[in-house]
Specification:
Length: 374
């Protein structure tokens, strides 16, 4: 049987980089497994730096409203799998075009609603649940909830087949030199964050030899993290790196990195500060100590989500306390302790590596459903 299917993935960039970051990784990984992907996105601009090389097997198409002429580009190409990322609601005119195709071919597409990542218990309950479509041209079809997650009863995590081999071949010093960073054996800390209330305290800790007696270099990602750091060190109240002789704490501002180089950054550092759901997964695969700034929600739902994540990680008390302060849920930011934190990350990573990757599970789920539903 030919297992290569045509996938249409729909992505709306709400804010930040996570929506397109996840959808791009998913698209590229499906293509690497022989699937054909059309990625419909309302704002593809971030892909110019996230994935400048593109990817064979993935076609990026603009999600215009209405889709209009773009529908015609479909020609006679089949619509076999539809992926609606993060509840973005696929354009109705596209669904109508798919329904026409389905009438011709006699095979309905498999329609996946790809959900947000969480370690909360509801994920296992809701994963792979059907949601019947009652009206419109797709009446009688089924949408399937697909939840990424950290346990065997979930859809798993995005992970490329070649990840371990790439990691094994990675050379920290060579990569840092390519970035123009003259590495002298400092402790390396990456910073990808929004505006954490405890940022000033973190810089204080690092400048005051906590936790590391030797020099520390902070590698700051472009955008909100860089703006937040610059705003602080431009404020005279903060002890300037220069006032520490410029030696204990040095700061490197990074350019926009491709997703591949973003991984390299996480592999290169001894402690990673990450944010959002894509970078937190990459931090787990990096096998280094990390701290997650979870995307804040107005109703404080992120507190429960963070606790569930820390439970999954079997985080030691000091890592839990640090997360709570970094996420504004307690006041005093403790001293970071990457040496003792990395053990639980490595253990969790090993456990998660034993789980089928999200794309393996998703392709299996889709194939199974195509056989069940003509
Ligand atoms: O940008 P984010 O904060 O996205 C968030 C989350 O996805 C969150 O769950 C969602 O609700 C909210 O947006 C709206 O963080 P995230 O998910 O880690 O995505 C960042 C992506 O950007 C990730 O794919 C890595 C990539 N990246 C690079 O490729 N190069 C870079 O230089 C940087 C800084 C990031």
């Amino acid at each position: 049987m030919n297992h290569s299917l045509q996938w249409d993935i729909f992505c709306k960039v709400i804010d930040n980089h996570g929506d397109i970051g996840v959808c791009w990784r998913l698209s590229a990984e499906l293509a690497s497994r022989g699937q054909r992907v059309r990625l419909w996105v309302d704002d593809a601009s971030a892909l110019s730096w996230m994935a400048p090389q593109g990817c064979d097997g993935v076609t990026v198409l603009p999600w215009l409203e209405p889709l209009g002429m773009n529908i015609l580009r479909l020609g006679s190409a089949p619509c076999e799998v539809l992926v609606e990322a993060f509840g973005c609601e696929i354009a109705p005119e596209f669904i109508a075009a798919c329904a026409d195709h389905a009438m011709d071919t006699g095979q309905k597409p498999v329609w996946i609603n790809l959900e947000y990542l969480s370690a909360e218990a509801y994920v296992e309950r809701c994963h792979a649940m059907p949601s019947p479509v009652h009206s419109g041209p797709a009446a009688g079809w089924t949408k399937w909830f697909f939840y990424p997650g950290f346990t065997p009863g979930t859809g798993g995590l995005l992970r490329e087949d070649g990840l371990a081999a790439r990691q094994a071949a990675f050379q920290r010093s060579a990569w840092l030199a390519q970035q123009g960073i003259a590495y002298k054996g400092e402790m390396l800390v990456s910073l990808f964050c929004y505006e954490p209330p405890a940022l000033a305290r973190l810089l204080d800790h690092l400048a005051q030899r906590n936790p590391h007696p030797g020099p520390v270099r902070l590698l700051v990602t472009v955008g909100r993290a860089a703006s937040a750091v610059k705003a602080l060190i431009n404020d005279e109240k903060w002890p300037q790196p220069g006032q520490n002789g410029g030696e204990q704490l040095s700061i490197s501002y990074l350019p926009l990195l491709s997703q591949t180089d973003f991984d390299h950054l996480l592999w290169a550092c001894d402690l990673n500060f990450v944010r959002g759901e894509d970078s937190v997964v990459r931090a787990i695969w990096a096998a280094q100590a990390f701290v997650w700034q979870i995307y804040p929600q107005a109703d404080q739902a992120h507190r429960v989500k963070l606790e569930a994540f820390l439970d999954m990680l079997q985080a030691p008390p000091s890592l839990r306390r640090f997360h709570e302060a970094w996420n504004g849920l307690r006041d005093e930011l403790p001293v970071p302790d990457p040496e003792s934190w990395s053990a639980c990350v490595r253990t969790a990573r090993q456990r998660l590596l034993d789980q089928d990757a999200l794309c393996t599970q998703l392709i299996g789920f889709v194939m199974h459903n195509r056989q069940q539903t003509p």
